[in-house]
Amino acid sequence: MGSGPTGYSAALYAARAELQPVVLTGMQLGGQAALTYTIENYPGFPDGVGGAQLGELFQKQAEHFGAVTEFSSAHSVDLSQRPFKVKSDDEDYLADTLIVGTGASPTHLNISGEVELTGRGVSYCATCDGWFFKDKKVVVVGGGDSALEEALFITRYASSVTIIHRREEFRASPILQHRAREHPKVDFILNTIVTEIVGTDKLEALKLKNVKTGDETIYEADGLFIFIGHIPNTQIFKDQLEMSDLGYIKVNDKMETNVPGVFAAGEAADPHFRQVVTSAGMGAAAAIQATRFLEAESE
Ligand SMILES: Cc1cc2nc3c(=O)[nH]c(=O)nc-3n(C[C@H](O)[C@H](O)[C@H](O)COP(=O)(O)OP(=O)(O)OC[C@H]3O[C@@H](n4cnc5c(N)ncnc54)[C@H](O)[C@@H]3O)c2cc1C
């Protein structure tokens, strides 16, 4: 399940093991990676590769070995017995094993301009996109560890990083707060929310509102990084697969879930690394383990 790096990498391995994998794409063909203009940290592409292009290459390679792509989303699963049942909008699938690669979605601000300017100044991944903001003016939204960590990371490139937070206090650990406050490139705008992202082809400015005074201002910026959390796309497995409090599917080091024959990999199960290369690696591992699982059954 899933057509991101996890899903197609798992499908490639499963197809080469002649397991006849079917990939359910979900709503986002290519996964989150397809949202970004260029990926420069996936090995094998010294000049970088378009996010959507990399997704197409993953798909082509898996299909070359026999994986079948189905353009649909699963809306429910029954993992109580095998074969597992996966219901999509237009069809029901039966599967001897299931690999969950449904990824995660960054929490959005849900404000005007956000969708249109994602990849054009608006980003959810500093490791991925920080480099594009060399000597630029960047805003980071959020008040947790990841917001401050990522803000500090972006200082390597940006000329300035302004952290906008809706409260006075930060959830982030004191050491990160200290580092951010001491950093000469970092400043803060507190008790403030972003209400609109302004720009036509690229981000040009942000509309801000002070939540205490109600004052509204326009703030010019080249980049906006939003770090207000991630939501794993795992709701349909609730009460069937064990999950963390945050909804990440619990797996062991073989990508096995609590249900024998069901594996989970990539961002659906990984709150830590969240990269194309790590997700693809976990997808491959899940498919290798699924192959072993089926082989053991037929012995
Ligand atoms: C803007 C942006 C830029 C990024 N840039 C980089 C970068 O430069 N380098 C890097 O390494 N990482 C980057 N990342 C992170 C990287 O994209 C993710 O770590 C990676 O895509 C996770 O892979 P995944 O397959 O586990 O999940 P996703 O990529 O999230 O894919 C999940 C897939 O599951 C499908 N799905 C969801 N629900 C269902 C369902 N019910 N039924 C069927 N299918 C379903 C979706 O349609 C999607 O195809 C970036 C992320 C973003 C958002």
Could you please describe the fold and organization of this structure?
Helix 1 (5-16) packs parallel to helix 2. This protein is elongated. The chain has 299 residues and is of the alpha/beta class. The strands form 7 sheets. Strands 10-17-11-12-13 form a 5-stranded parallel sheet. A 3-stranded antiparallel sheet has the order 5-6-7, with no helix packed on it. A 3-stranded antiparallel sheet has the order 14-15-16, with no helix packed on it. The chain is built from 6 helices and 19 strands. The mean pLDDT is 95. Bound molecules: flavin-adenine dinucleotide. The site of flavin-adenine dinucleotide has 40 residues, from helix 1, strand 9, helix 3 and helix 6.
Task: Give the CA-based shape.
Answer: elongated
Please mark out the parts with pLDDT under 50 across 5 or more consecutive residues, or reply none. none
The mean pLDDT is 95
C-alpha termini separation:
27 Å
The helix-strand sequence is HEEEHEEEEEEEHEHEHEEEEEEEH
The largest sheet is: 5 strands, parallel
- Supply the helix-strand structural class: alpha/beta
- Looking at how many chains there are and whether they match, the oligomeric state comes to single chain
- Indicate the percent of residues in helices: 10-25%
